[in-house]
Amino acid sequence: MSSDVDRVMSELESLGYAPEHRSWQRGDMIVINYTIEIGSHAGEEVHLGIGFLETGYPEYPPHWILVSPPIEDGSHAGPAGTFIDNEGRTWLPMSRPPSDFWDSLAPEHQNMRTYLLRHVRRLWSQV
Fold first, then answer.
1. Per-run averaged pLDDT (10 residues), the chain, 127 residues
2. Could you tell me the pTM of the whole model?
């Protein structure tokens, strides 16, 4: 595993998650069991994948948000359609870089806590 993956997994573990490293068609993916906290799907439990476009975390945050089972957010901008992993799970990859706010964060706030609270929650608030 890369140091980026190791660091993200460590940060997620410190938040109480049990992350798993997986591979998908675009590279590394870290998967957690996640309960959607906001929006029309609040309370639903999903597998949330966090995928990288480039190395260099935390300077370059994870780019992809993947969800299984698929929940379309209305502005799908990932690869065409869904894919099925080795365990038979169907995933929807969504290209959702957090660059609109990430670069303005102080380095101590460029972490998975901020990524989940600001970026992932924003996605679900719009669905």
1. 89 98 91 96 97 91 94 62 89 91 96 97 91
2. 0.90
